[in-house]
Amino acid sequence: MRQFVSSVYPDKKGMLELCGKDFRYLKQVLRLCAGDMLYVRLPDGKLSGTTVAKIDESKKTVFLQVCDCVPEVLKDGGENQSDYRPETDFYLFQFVAKGPKMDLIVRQAAECGVLKVVPVTGKFTQPCGAEKNLRNSRYERIVREARQQSGSPVATEISETLSLEEACALWKKVAGEKPEESFACVLYERSERTKNLYEALADLNVIKKCAVFCGAEGGISPEEIDFLLENGIVPVHFETNILRCETAALYGTACLQNAVTGRKLWQKK
To answer: Which domains does the chain have, with CATH numbers?
Structure first.
């Protein structure tokens, strides 16, 4: 389900006024006309149905009227995405890849509903991509476009770039007072000292926080794997081909989400 992610709330009359880049997107990309319907994700996460009330070409402004009608996605027992909150928060700790690849990784993570992407510097990360702060308008735009295309209700965040030590400290903070309800793994191309993903998850009853660490071009060094192991991050090896870093990030995230969701469905039976 496509949606428009709004950075502003409607006024007291339920009208959204959108101009600038939003006007160009709605008019030129979505090609909206007066009377068209559009789902809008408001800043608080609520999903609302809207109608295009007016398009003012002279002011380059689109006026959207919030409707009282229930969006089709909420009817017939469908997922109530306006109130939807995933039971598990997913984090991607991504060793910084080259610019275009990092852009792709961020986009795919947002489409998959990852809560936070944390760029990490390491032995094999690219100097050209290891800016200290990646939280800028470019990445915000990539995330917003990905959420609009995918309909993700999760407001994906991009962290500042951290060292491996800082990344592990952040994960411990995220796990907080209930580390028994958290799980973190690192994707490793070698098989020694690794576990099968389902094996690694077997002893966990409730999983509220999940993280996957993924290497950049060149992978992750044995010394970094040692450090991650010391910090409770489980090395996981997939019996598959060696994947490019941008493929591995998507594949690893999807496998972890599927494994966690599958466990919950199996436990309910």
So the answer is: 4-74 (2.40.240.20), 89-268 (3.40.1280.10)
